[in-house]
Amino acid sequence: MGLLFAIVFGLTALGSAVTVVPTLVMEWKRSDSHDVLFYVGTKEPVVALTIDDGPSLATPEILEILADNDARATFFVIGDHVRAHPDLAYRMVAEGHELGHHMMADAPSIDLPADAFRAELEEMDGILAGFGSSNVFRPGSGWYDERMIADAAELGYRTVLGSVYPFDAQIPLPKLSGWYMRQIVGPGSIMILHDGPERGPRTAEVLRSLLPELRARGYRVVTVSSLLSLEVGVEEGRGATGPRRAQ
User: Fold this and answer.
1) Active-site residue numbers?
2) With the C-alpha atoms ordered 96, 101, 103, 104, is the resulting torsion angle positive or negative?
3) Domains of the chain (ranges, CATH numbers)
4) What's the mean pLDDT when you consider all of the chain?
């Protein structure tokens, strides 16, 4: 009985930690922020889905699952990956999804010197221009400071992080990611998942079960820009001061 109790207690504690700790991290981030979007204040049953780091060879499966569930997403794409898979970027747009600015390479943006950051920001802006307009930006690896946000704003970009992040980039457990997201999601949430050769198939697995459940709860899954159009009341969850990490 002692061993059984220890196992049950340990699993219960782990479940509580998985639910509470990421939420506390996001709330701490949001409370220290004024110019970064974490979620949208709305009572409507609508959430935004964001998927980072694509396109990749895993993207077609993700797009098929989104289509099957009448869901739309904001893909925060990487410049080098768009150049490698332009057909997938065109397909994202053609199927009603939004392309977001996620810099040129999968690396922490905050490590770049100021001039290099600005040059990369503008280079990626030029790439996105070939696929239509984009006005949402997410720094590489989630680190940011006031200068980066200001530079992005000068080019017309709103910096966007999120409120439902299962740390799927660090924890390769799709079932755990999906469970966590189902517990935390609510009206106006911005969800974060990842594309890529390894992470993309995990995201597909998460979405295959998560999206039907959200539909059953009455939620619509839309792009960040579509969610922003529903914003009401006092602007919430924005901020600049850092550097900070949100994903």
Assistant:
1) 52, 194
2) positive
3) 2-228 (3.20.20.370)
4) 86
